């Protein structure tokens, strides 16, 4: 078994880990500060709040659909460390734009005309930023790590991502929006500084012409990647997982406000519990598998996730109808409610099971293909994942527009977990046959 902690002392891993951690932190500090401010300070309608949350999620995800093919080509045919530096440099003006939108919204100046468009434009640009960084953070691992370190490194990257989501979510819910505006710019500067220390990662194959026709390139990339059945099943399984995650993340802020009568700090607490749980699941699966890449635990893990979603739905339906005009509960008042702790534990269970499900599948994508193809494999995965996430966001928005209650939409997430379990089972069977 390869332990994870020793990698944190190695230059071949630590700068990349810090860079991706800061990037995930900044994404979530900005996005959650924006969504929470709009939901709790600007809008007063469950359907409008859910629609804005869905639009924000879709805008962040769309660049993955459009540009992942190009990002995968670049990552496989150029030095990955150099791309990291360029991407992190671009983050600085993006966050200056987003920070300006947050300040305008805080001051109540030109909210519809300038503040919201600036914030959404920055969110879309951060989606572009993450599209080009995403393939690298996984594809660079087999290049810098030994074979028996890849699962541990993948688990650390995934856990670090969710710890960063945790930190960004906490700050977004607890600090004033004007301080969030300053924080996103400072974090962008720190991310660029960390990225400069990532060791060189030259391409593993001869350079080829880049295909800038994103539709054709995307179709070609996905078709060329999915011919291996194990890779095909891993990508589909991950995609269904992220569609579940997208629906849940869209629902949390309006659900906390309108179903549980809870403040934005409680909404932030929900996202925190989710992030902690995925980090715990990401680390624990490495211990269970003893460093070996396998989908053995994927089906039971995602079925457990579905059961926890049903438990979360059941507890929400038993919470009771908020009294008209009732003041939103702060964290202390919320935790004093009889069902609060079971609700949070069910949410933690969703996330732990989800982390245990998804980490080995990402390791599959980086270890069962040639090193010269890893970035493009991750890019193909991002295209399919993003399509599923956009689909999940559109379904959630459509159900809200049709008047389906937020709490009832949780059952859709549970149903998708069953499909993920079937795909995970097929992947494990395929894996056993290949041995």
UniProtKB/TrEMBL annotation:
SUPFAM superfamilies: MFS general substrate transporter. Keywords: Cell membrane, Membrane, Transmembrane, Transmembrane helix, Transport. GO terms for molecular function: transmembrane transporter activity. Pfam families: MFS_1. It is found in: Cell membrane. It comes from the Bacteria. Gene3D superfamilies: MFS general substrate transporter like domains. The chain crosses the membrane at residues 50-71, 92-109, 115-138, 150-171, 177-195, 231-250, 270-289, 301-320, 340-365, 377-399, 405-427. The keyword Cell membrane applies. Its main location: membrane. One of its GO terms (cellular component) is plasma membrane. It is a multi-pass membrane protein. This is MFS transporter. It comes from Novosphingobium flavum. The lineage of its organism: Bacteria, Pseudomonadati, Pseudomonadota, Alphaproteobacteria, Sphingomonadales.
